Amino acid sequence: MKVVIIDDDILVSRLVKQNLGTGYQTLLASSAKEGMKLLSEKPDLVIIDLDLEERLLGLSLIEPFKKTGAKTVVVSNHDEESVIEKCYEAGCDIFYSKGVLADSIHQIINDILLKDQPVLSETVFTDKYVTVDTNLKNDIKRAFKGLMQSSNVLISGETGTGKSEVAKLFHEEAKLKGEFVAINCASIPKELLESELFGHTKGSFTGAVNAKTGKLKLADNGILFLDEINSMSLDMQAKLLKAVEEKKFYPVGAERMVESSFRLIAASNENLFELVAQGRFRLDLLQRLCGTMLELSPIRERTSDVAPIMKFFNKTQKKIFLDAKVKEMVSQYDWKGNTREVKRFTEYCLNLNGGKVTETDFKTFINLNKAETTPVTRDLSFWIKESLEKGLDAVTDEFRKNIISEVMKSNANVTTVMKDLQISTRQFYKHVGNKKNKENALVQELGSQEYENQLQ
């Protein structure tokens, strides 16, 4: 949130700024003239002292700032009814006695901003994020309220619990001026993530043919959603922390800072407190992220949500009926894939000949699901037999491919997978890349002449 304070008593202004803390971008002006220069900043809130260079000169600032969309607070030692009336007629939102400003600034902000802020209605839990769980509803409403108070939000939960859906829901319901900008930190190679977040200037590094605007700037006056923030390197965490605190940052290769008034929602499928203990996540960044925390409970802990979620995913006219035994099995099933697995079950039911789902149908679904998610295990004798038939090199390649593919199921970040398995880029693409990448990898390994000889 951007706050402008216009007061000729600079000590009061600095005290208010200090009490606001780093969660706000606070700009100060000590005269009406300096205050007018800050109109272009388009603040969310402006605090105006009435007596500046002249008595009641602050009155002239109310209307210009109201036109920018800012909320206006007047603070003054004047308690004459006629003065208060003039302020409200000019368009000020709230009038306060000056003595309370520094100590009560957060309450003042809550009073003026929260009264007009949107709240989540019950319909969002049937139309956008489906749940009948009362505790989860209350937690989501609380997190949304925190976001509206300019608090960062940290969403935790298992894969498939709908962290990104909640983030999108918050943006839609907040009705902010800016965009919803999402980035999956695990899907971007470490060396490219800084450019994705902060942007870069033309020619700042090899391949930077054109300048690029970073995600932090694209989310100005909107929401920046950082999914799987747990995969971010410690170096990048330090840079992100500074940007989150100051709402200013340097694009790669830039000499001037860029400003962005984004609201931050971060998500993690790992316990960040445990990662801090392991030295894999910065405590100061975690403290900055968890202004408001929201944990999305897994489906196995709220199986009453299965039926309404199935109804939500059923976009056809066909109606599905679960018999009593299936309902009992549904309540006892672990739903490891959470909402995604419920969606697969819905699609499976819709493909049945009839609309009634029986115990046999559900057992078949479970077996099919296990076949899709359980990796094939083979003992040493199998690999020896295969090696004798196909050759050791061919079987070794297949074994490597299977290992890499299984690891990729739990972590889609190529850079992280290569680091964890201690393999090179060439080795990775040799085994699981597309045809072109495999050819390039083999050329690097064998040399172009040897590779051509093998093709002949």
Please describe what this structure looks like.
The chain has helices at residues 10-20, 32-37, 59-67, 81-90, 105-114, 124-127, 134-148, 163-174, 190-198, 215-218, 234-246, 272-277, 283-289, 306-313, 324-332, 338-350, 359-373, 380-390, 392-410, 414-421, 425-432, 435-446, 448-455, and strands at 2-6, 25-29, 45-49, 71-76, 94-97, 153-157, 180-184, 199-200, 212-213, 223-227, 248-249, 258-259, 263-268, 292-296, 321-322, 356-357. The protein is of the alpha/beta class and 456 residues long. A five-stranded parallel sheet has the order 2-1-3-4-5, sandwiched between helices. It has a five-stranded parallel sheet with strand order 7-10-13-6-14. Strands 8-9 form a two-stranded antiparallel ribbon. It starts with a strand and ends with a helix. The relative contact order is 0.07.
Strand fraction equals 5-15%
**Average of pLDDT:** 84
Largest sheet: 5 strands, parallel
The strand order across the widest sheet is 2-1-3-4-5
The structural class is alpha/beta
Shape: globular
What's the gist of this structure?
With 456 residues, the chain is α/β, with parallel strands linked by helices. Helix content is 50%, strand content 14%.
What's the structural blueprint in terms of helices and strands?
Blueprint: E1 2-6, H1 10-20, E2 25-29, H2 32-37, E3 45-49, H3 59-67, E4 71-76, H4 81-90, E5 94-97, H5 105-114, H6 124-127, H7 134-148, E6 153-157, H8 163-174, E7 180-184, H9 190-198, E8 199-200, E9 212-213, H10 215-218, E10 223-227, H11 234-246, E11 248-249, E12 258-259, E13 263-268, H12 272-277, H13 283-289, E14 292-296, H14 306-313, E15 321-322, H15 324-332, H16 338-350, E16 356-357, H17 359-373, H18 380-390, H19 392-410, H20 414-421, H21 425-432, H22 435-446, H23 448-455
Parallel strand pairs: 1-2, 1-3, 3-4, 4-5, 6-13, 6-14, 7-10, 10-13, 15-16
Antiparallel strand pairs: 8-9, 11-12
Helix pairs in contact: 14-16, 18-19, 21-22, 22-23
